[in-house]
RING-type E3 ubiquitin transferase
Amino acid sequence: MGLEGLTFGLAASAVLSVASGWWALRRLVQARHLLDTPTSKIRSAAQGYAEFYGVLQEIPETVIVAPLTGTPCQWWRYRIEEYQGSGKSRSWRVVERGTSEAWLLLDDHTGQCLIDPRGALVRPATRVVWQGHQRHPRGLAKTGFFAALGLGREYRYTEERLHSGQPLYAIGEFRSSGGGRQGLDLDAAQRTVVSEWKGNFDGLLQRFDQNSDGQLDEREWARVRLAARLEAEDRHRAQSAQPARHQLSKPRESQPFVLSCAGEDELARRFYWQAAAGFVLCLAGAVAYAWLLGIKGF
């Protein structure tokens, strides 16, 4: 083996070992997050990272249709692959893919929670795969004589969906507003109001410039801050009087954001198997790296 081949082999084995080791550790941490986070009820859940079990419901006046089959659903993801290449080198290659970003509605019989699915690891129960000869199919491929002949099999389509009425496990960042649940940082709210008022400084002068000199002195600024504080309190009371609104979204930290028709035990088990496979690849990369070093004589 030449020097160039050895160098490439060392680099490849090092990358394989590091990347698979990182992946395995990540999957282990994610599995522990799933198992260690207690299941909460939407009505009484604490703010922050939370886990829920419930049933998907339709959002009123919202119509969502899967793009490949035209099936009504609550969420979809699709992939179109084309059979490309020549001879023995032919293989399926992705030519188009897409994922729904429409909000979901989870109901656990104690309350309802809107879910922003962007950035989530979604494991739906419904998954269909078929083949055809059109880039964008209108429905499932027909079966029969032409299918038996293998005609029109240049494209492979995969469509995954979530439907109303299906059970859903969800874990992510939980936030509530309205219903008197949100706290008030009065100083921060006051600064927000003052900042808004400064955006229309002429209006601010008209309201608080008592001596009409075109500027606000210290006493007038004190009145501005007091009025802003009262305005912040009024806004908080008005918001608290609104019905409670719950939302789940991707956490800012590295915690997993998962939406799945399977429960946490099945998901954690899958993560553990993936972690095990990652550690095997990590070990294989390390062994290959050591073997190549031995060949090189280090």
Q: What stands out?
A: The longest helix spans residues 3-36.
